[in-house]
Every structure is written in structure tokens, then in C-alpha cells.
Specification:
The protein is mainly alpha-helical. The chain has helices spanning 2-40, 43-53, 111-134, 140-157, and strands spanning 58-62, 65-69. The chain has a two-stranded antiparallel sheet with strand order 1-2. Helix 3 packs antiparallel against helix 4 (140-157).
Length: 158
């Protein structure tokens, strides 16, 4: 059985290397096709294509939030990648490089930080509970050990 497992591991490693090479060669072939196709496109047609992309127009991040020019806006359903924290931070005032950045609120670990820690703790606890339910075949002693270990881990973070 050990030799069979070793053979499977060897084949798996060889397949992974061959697959990575295959992906690399496919990308090179696509790049070659793009280069040969671009040589056949006229300058007039290329400039019309660039104008149709409207790179000079500003992109709208959200409703009424106009951002930077020079990109393509792609929309997606709001539930495709849910986020609870907004990644874009806006500060009012002058954009002069000599003016210092405004002080951020909640730098003292206010309510937002506490809610984030509580949310992470709840997620971790639900994962522990679901894994202990799935692994309860052996008896109650293993479930009790994992439950006590989870309780001590939660106390260390506070």
C-alpha cells in the first residue's frame, strides 16, 4: 500500500508540472495570436476603438461618487462579493501635498474594533460547533475536549 501511495504521489506531482507547462504554452500561443492580429489592425481603426472605450471619462464608484478616469467600469451583483467594510476612504478638504492628512476617528480601538473582534469570535465559534457536530462519531469525550479548548482560546483574545 505504501508503494502504491508513493506511485500516486509521484504521478500527481508529474501531472502538476505538466499542467503548469501546458498553461504557460497556452498563454504564449494566445499572446502570439494577439500580436499577429494587432499588426493587421489599421491605425484609424485602433484610434476609433480607443475612443469608444472612453478612457477620459471618470468612473462612478457608487451613486454620486465619481472616481478617476482611465478605466473600464464592470458591474456585478451586490451579493457576489459581500463586504462589511468599505475599502474606499474619502476625506474632505484641500488636496494640497503640504496639508497633513486628517486625523482618523476611532484610533483608540472604539466600537468598530470591538464589533469586528466579536464578529470574528462568533464566526470561529460557529465553525468549531459545526466541526464538533460533524466529528461526534467517536463519543462525547472528544467533543468535550474540543469545547473546552475553544473556550480557553476565546478568553486569550480579550
Amino acid at each position: 500500500i505504501f508503494l502504491l501511495n508513493l506511485l500516486i504521489a509521484q504521478l500527481n506531482g508529474a501531472y502538476r508540472i505538466v499542467y503548469e507547462d501546458m498553461v504557460g504554452y497556452a498563454r504564449l500561443n494566445r499572446a502570439e495570436i494577439i500580436v499577429t492580429t494587432m499588426e493587421q489592425v489599421s491605425e484609424k481603426r485602433w484610434s476609433r476603438f480607443l475612443q469608444s472605450l472612453k478612457f477620459e471619462e471618470r468612473l462612478e464608484f457608487g451613486e454620486g461618487d465619481i472616481g478617476l478616469p482611465g478605466g473600464l467600469q464592470v458591474t456585478e451583483p451586490s451579493n457576489a462579493n459581500p463586504t462589511t467594510v468599505d475599502a474606499i476612504r474619502r476625506f474632505g478638504g484641500s488636496t494640497s501635498p503640504t496639508v497633513p492628512w486628517p486625523e482618523e476617528e476611532n484610533m483608540d480601538g472604539g466600537d468598530d474594533d470591538k464589533f469586528d473582534r466579536l464578529e470574528k469570535l462568533i464566526v470561529r465559534a460557529t465553525k468549531n460547533m459545526s466541526s464538533s457536530r460533524g466529528g461526534k462519531k467517536g463519543g462525547s469525550s472528544s467533543a468535550g475536549a474540543s469545547g473546552s479548548g475553544g473556550g480557553s482560546g476565546g478568553g486569550e483574545e480579550e
